[in-house]
Known about the structure:
This protein is an alpha+beta fold. It has 2 domains: about 5-70 and about 180-350, Aminopeptidase (3-Layer(aba) Sandwich); about 75-165, CATH 2.40.30.40. The protein has 9 helices and 17 strands. Helix 1 runs antiparallel to helix 2 (about 25-35) and helix 4 packs across helix 9. It binds zinc ion (ZN). Zinc ion binds near residues 181, 216 and 325.
Amino acid sequence: MDIINEKSEKFMFDYLNSSSPTGFESAGQQTWVEYVQSYVDEWHLDNYGTAYGIINPGKPYKVVIEAHADEIAWFVNYISDKGFISVIRNGGSDHIIAPSKRVNIYTKNGPVQGVFGWPAIHTRKGKKSSLSPSMENIFIDVGAKDKEEVEKMGVHVGCVVTFEDELMKLNEKYYVGRALDNRMGGFCIAQVARLIKENKIDLPFSLYVVNAVQEEIGLRGAQMVADQIKPNVAIITDVCHDTDTPLIDKKIQGDTSAGNGPSLTVGPAVHNKLLNLIFDAAEDKEIPFQRSASSRSTGTDTDAFAYSNGGVPSALISLPLRYMHTTVEMAHTEDIENVVKLIYESLLKIEENHNFKYF
Ligand SMILES: [Zn+2]
C-alpha cells in the first residue's frame, strides 16, 4: 500500500507546520480540507470548526473515522508594566519545557514572535538555584520596552500562543515536531480516504472522515459532531505513550514501543465486537499491533462518540508517540503507515448494516 509518498508527505509537512490551537483551528483545518476534498464526495464544517468529508453520502448506515485537529497552546493572560507576558494554558501545555522556546503570538495583524525567557544560571544564586519552571514564573518576552509597546504590536489578553517549531525527519525513521498529537491522526484518516478513492472501493455505508476540534480541553469537538452525524460506528485514532524512553514506569503506563505497530485499547468505552473486528483485520493482513488497557474511559474522542446518541460502538487505534505535549513529539514512520492500513482494512470488514449487538 502506497501511504507515505512524495505527495502525501508534502501534505503532512504543510499540515503539521500550520497552526491549529484549540478553539482556533481554522488554518490547519483549511490545509486539511484542501487535501481531503479530492478524495471525498462532499465536505462540511460545523459551527465550531470541525471539518468532515463524506464518501458515499446518503446511506442509512454511517461509519466515522476520526482524529482531532487541535493542538495545545497558551493564552496571553497578563502583560506587566515592563512588557513581560504571563500565560495560562489552552489544553495540557507543559510549563516545564517552556523556558528558552520561541513562540508565535497570534494577533489580528498576524503572528508576533516572542521567546519564553529564563534567568541565566549565573543569576540564580542561593535558594533560587533550584528554581524550576512553573505556571507562576514562566513569561514571554517580545522585545518590547513596556506594556504600551506590547499592545502596539497587537498583543492583548486572550491572544493565543504556540511554540514555534517545524516538522523534521530523524534518522529516516521518525517524524519529529510539535502537535503530532494529533495532526498525525488527521494525516492518517486523510490517507484512508485517499486509498478508498484510489482503490475504487465501493463501501456499503456512508463513510465520514472527521477532523474534530477541541479535543485537548475535554473532547468537545467530538461531542458536538457525534450529535450531528449520529453515526452507527466510530473508529477513532489518537496518540498514546511510547513507554520505552527513560523515566517512564511501564508497570503504571503499560508496555508500548514506537515501531511495533498501532496500539489497541481494551476498556469499557471501547466496543468489544468492533475491537475484535479490528484485531481480525490486523491478524488477517499481518499488520503489527500492541495492546493497552484503560480502566474507565480512554481519555480520547473515543469516549465522546461511545457515550453519544444513546451509545455508539466505538474503538481506538493509537499511534505510539514519544514526548507527548513537547515540541519534539516523535512518531515512527512504520507506525503511521500501519495506523492507516489498520483503519483501512477494518473499514473493509464492516458490512452493510453491520450488527454490533453482543447477542
Ligand atoms: Zn494531547
